């Protein structure tokens, strides 16, 4: 078991403790001495506190050595985090998020599409009215027994707006039940933006709370990576639709970065010219890339990812330090989410609630733990409208990160919490066996985010003060 991690980032030395989520910045001397403590004759990762120093210490070093020993004593006595899952009462469930594959079809041909336009390599299909009614009844029945007050409904695909009439019917009927159920429904949509116009846009602006539009940066890069189904340019159409959308505050942009993209920073700067308030950038990390040689060419090497993230963070913190309130920042990146989550210091022993807090329903009415497991028949949980109850795959139940190898030996285990089940399944064939490349990327990014947190604390801490349960730095 590894309960702490020392690393260098941006010319500074850091020490992170897994159990408490405390991050310390070390002087060069303290860092060198801590490295000696980790030598074979010193303290183990979770072993007892060190005995006599491994070499004679100077008068200046002795107090620092004692301070480091005391710190290790204190941190390694912190209890291991325990599961925070609340067991539902009899007749109750914890479902809160539902994803509906309205259209397992698409009008675009994106080079990196992980679910092949929603088809998963099968014939395309739109959800029909009967399947929609069964899915709606399933959701309402589960929501009625749910302990959650806020319910999130996401429309997904493919391109869900290809099936807008069914989306509109589901939306209006769901909202009719809010008062009866005593719940608040939050409707969200992931779209490529090509159909975001006219009456469709008016409807979404009235009833939806968030709309994510996929746009990959500059026109040159976007049209290379996200052409229409017949190779046509789509960037200008999407941008025009966004600019004319009735309520632009609902819009956010999600860009995917491949080996052919501009850098993280260049992509972000290109998207800030479009006037949206939220920009989410993610590197292409296609599940199952080893099954398709083209994905190997699209994936950005981890080394390049980390260099680009560092470049962006240095720019971004310099940028937001000019503002006294996060709400005033014109363009917010999802990087800020990572920083504030780390600052919060929450510990997790399982990665997500796939199949227990979340469900996904495909266009045929089949039920799966989440959108990433849709059409993976081994993980089907049932069918909407069937009498049989939901059946969760054995590998997705009872997971605790401290009981899972190799997570048991990872210093990031209470942040990553074991990682994405679906990604592991596609990369290794087992939802509980993370691929080494996945772990390398997660740990490398975490070090960059820790660095970003310290920079923000030093330069613009007011952006973190709104979190009431922040852990000490």
From TrEMBL:
Residues 92-318 form the Radical SAM core domain. One of its GO terms (molecular function) is metal ion binding. Keywords: Iron, Iron-sulfur, Metal-binding, S-adenosyl-L-methionine. Its cofactor is [4Fe-4S] cluster. CDD domains: Radical_SAM (cd01335). This is Radical SAM domain protein. It comes from Citrifermentans bremense. The lineage of its organism: Bacteria, Pseudomonadati, Thermodesulfobacteriota, Desulfuromonadia, Geobacterales.
């Amino acid at each position: 078991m590894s309960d702490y991690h020392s690393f260098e980032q941006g010319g500074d030395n850091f020490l992170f403790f897994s159990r408490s989520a405390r991050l310390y910045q070390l002087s060069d001397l303290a860092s060198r001495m801590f490295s000696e403590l980790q030598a074979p004759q010193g303290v183990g990762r979770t072993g007892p506190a060190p005995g006599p120093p491994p070499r004679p210490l100077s008068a200046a070093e002795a107090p620092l050595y004692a301070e480091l020993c005391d710190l290790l004593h204190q941190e390694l006595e912190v209890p291991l985090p325990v599961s925070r899952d609340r067991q539902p009462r009899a007749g109750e469930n914890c479902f809160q998020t539902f994803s509906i594959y309205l259209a397992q079809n698409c009008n675009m041909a994106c080079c990196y599409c992980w679910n092949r336009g929603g088809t998963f390599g099968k014939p395309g299909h739109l959800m029909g009215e009967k399947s929609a009614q069964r899915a709606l009844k399933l959701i309402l029945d589960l929501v009625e027994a749910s302990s959650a007050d806020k319910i999130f409904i996401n429309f997904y695909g493919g391109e869900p707006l290809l099936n807008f009439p069914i989306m509109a019917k589901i939306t209006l009927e769901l909202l009719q039940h809010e008062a009866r159920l005593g719940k608040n429904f939050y409707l969200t949509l992931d779209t490529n933006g090509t159909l975001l116009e006219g009456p469709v846009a008016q409807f979404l602006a009235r009833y939806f709370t968030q709309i994510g539009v996929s746009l990959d940066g500059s026109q040159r890069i976007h049209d290379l990576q996200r052409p229409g189904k017949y190779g046509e340019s789509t960037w200008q159409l999407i941008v025009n639709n966004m600019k004319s959308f009735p309520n632009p505050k609902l819009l956010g942009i999600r860009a995917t970065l491949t080996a052919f993209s501009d850098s993280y920073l260049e992509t972000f700067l290109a998207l800030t010219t479009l006037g949206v308030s939220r920009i989410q950038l993610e590197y292409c990390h296609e599940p199952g890339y080893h099954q398709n040689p083209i994905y190997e060419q699209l994936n950005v090497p981890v080394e390049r990812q980390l260099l680009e993230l560092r470049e962006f963070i240095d720019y971004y913190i310099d940028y937001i330090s000019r503002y006294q309130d996060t709400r005033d920042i014109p363009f917010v990146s999802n990087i800020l989410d990572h920083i504030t989550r780390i600052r919060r210091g929450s510990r997790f022993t399982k990665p997500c609630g796939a199949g227990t807090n979340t469900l996904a329903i495909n266009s045929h009415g089949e039920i799966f733990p989440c959108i990433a497991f849709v059409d993976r028949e081994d993980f089907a949980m049932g069918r909407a409208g069937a009498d049989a109850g939901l059946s969760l795959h054995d590998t997705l139940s009872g997971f605790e990160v401290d009981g899972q190898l190799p997570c048991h030996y990872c210093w990031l285990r209470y942040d990553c919490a074991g990682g994405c089940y679906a990604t592991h399944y596609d990369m290794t064939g087992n939802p509980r066996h993370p691929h080494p490349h996945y772990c390398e990327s997660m740990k490398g990014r975490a070090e960059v985010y820790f660095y970003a947190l310290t920079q923000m604390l030093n330069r613009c801490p007011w952006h973190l003060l709104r979190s009431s349960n922040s852990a000490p730095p």
